[in-house]
Amino acid sequence: MVRNDTLFSLRALSTDGATVRVAVVASRAVGGAVQRNRARRRVRDAVRTVLAARPDPARGADLVVTVRTGALDVPAGLLRGAVERQLDAVFE
Predict the structure, then answer these.
(1) What percent of the chain is helix, strand and coil (3-state, nearest 5)?
(2) Which of 44, 59, 65, 92 is deepest in the core (most CB within 10 A)?
(3) CB 3 within 8 A of CB 86
């Protein structure tokens, strides 16, 4: 399943276990190394926060989140909201 947002792209693959694994990547289009690392940290923190607030999923998933440039400047609350919407669609 592929979910696109202005801040990131989320690719999900269902797995048999109950574990959710997450990889966050950012291409050079996001910016230099400092900007890419900051964007990855911000998105990783939003994903971690949203997943911690959710009940354990009935099925596991492997998630790959590709960060986009917009994730650098958006407020943290809006970033968490976008992550929550996309994860809701993946785990429904």
Answers:
(1) 50, 30, 25
(2) 65
(3) yes
Q: Which domain holds residue 12?
A: 2-91
User: What CATH number is associated with residue 66?
Assistant: 3.30.230.10
The string of pLDDT tens digits covering residues 27-55 is 999 999 999 999 999 999 999 999 999 88
Query: Which tokens hold the place of 87?
Result: 């994860």
**What are the start-end ranges of the H helices in the chain?**
33-53, 76-91
**What is the Cα–Cα distance from 68 to 81, expressed in whole angstroms?**
16
φ, ψ for residue 73, nearest 5 deg: -110, -10
Per-residue tokens: 86: 């996309």
